[in-house]
Amino acid sequence: MAFRGLAPFGALGRALSHRDARIFFGASLTSWTGLWVHQIAVAWLAWEMTKSAVWVGMVAFCDLAPAVIFSPIAGAVADRMDRVKLTMASQAVIALEAAAIGALLLTGHLSIGLLLALEMCKGTAASFSQPARQSLMPGLVPRADLPAAVACNSLCYNVARFVGPAIAGPLIATAGVVPAVFLNSLAYLAATLTMPSLRVDAAQRRGAPSGVSVWADTIAGFRYAGRHPGIGPLLAFAAIASVLMRGVQEILPPFVERLFARGADGLAMLTACIGIGALFSGLWVASRGKLEGAVGLSVGAVACQAIFTIGFVSTGFFPFALLCAALMGAAGSVHGISTQTLVQNAADPSMRGRVLSLWGMIVRACPASGALALGAAGEIFGLRWPTIAAMLVALLVFAWGWSRKPVMVAELEGRG
């Protein structure tokens, strides 16, 4: 039974008309809301403990950087085992990590070094969760509804990006960091417990062992993506753009205090505005429900995000910064949804987990690298000018991506 309230968004309504899709996306929304509360909490905690943009960048780096090592391996693992069980195990680890941070804070035993170690554990678990979860999506909806399902997945993430900060700001300001991280633990526990209720076709739920080692499968995934005339250039473009642009969003606390003289409330407002922009642009992309034009959206959104980020760091007027943050979120959402839809559609089913693990590595490890570099540069040169320089380089990357657009369109949009 389709959702009548989603009639204006026909493709999105079709994706959500399937029972398993509703369970899956409901769990995603719950866990990601907890995740955003957690990320704001630990970033603010690191800033309060050190007053250093470098340490805040290190916290983001330790959460996201394990994807460099583990995401490709996790993709190979997801292509050869039960993806539901792999998702459950990795999400349970994330729930335990958040509970450990809360317990250590309550007892006064949490140091910045221990926080970094725990965030690295969470990042490792997330590296295994991402390809396993994403590989399940073709088993939740018919192939015709897959673009809308991918858009809905990203939409859940961006709704959480709005709801999470709306919860985190007041919660941290009134009760501190401990309730925020415990909330994330409960959210991931709830999401984990919903997984056994999914009725996913066995062919989509369980990967097929290839007869070679996990390492050989991992290398095969890199070779497949690198040799694909559409997937290879698209992922390379996304990776470079992510390193240059996403670092700003990963280390927002120093920007909040140094550029706008705001506290936790300002951090929550900025993050919520990013989420609002992403939410509305995500709804628009989801309503398209088609591949045609997706390459142009993926590439063009990078130029838009670079321009809006320059506006964000060039002002000291907080209301204008909020507007730029919303536009940054909108552009980032269009890029992410379009890229993931194209990759999901074009990848061979036997390689889906590995290709999606590379996408997971890009969206996790590349922002971590950018955050660490930006945090270090910010301590020496200030935050404004290194950010502007990175955005100007991103515009050059956009020009390269646009020059490859015809080939990517032929390879990615022409495959049904």
From TrEMBL:
Entry annotated with the keyword RNA-binding: no
SUPFAM superfamilies linked: MFS general substrate transporter
TM spans (from-to): 23-47, 53-77, 98-118, 167-189, 231-248, 268-286, 293-314, 320-343, 355-377, 383-402
Principal subcellular localisation of the protein: membrane
Location in the cell: Cell membrane
UniProtKB keywords: Cell membrane, Membrane, Transmembrane, Transmembrane helix, Transport
Superkingdom assignment: Bacteria
GO cellular component: plasma membrane
Membrane topology note: Multi-pass membrane protein
Protein name: Transmembrane secretion effector
Organism per entry: Belnapia rosea
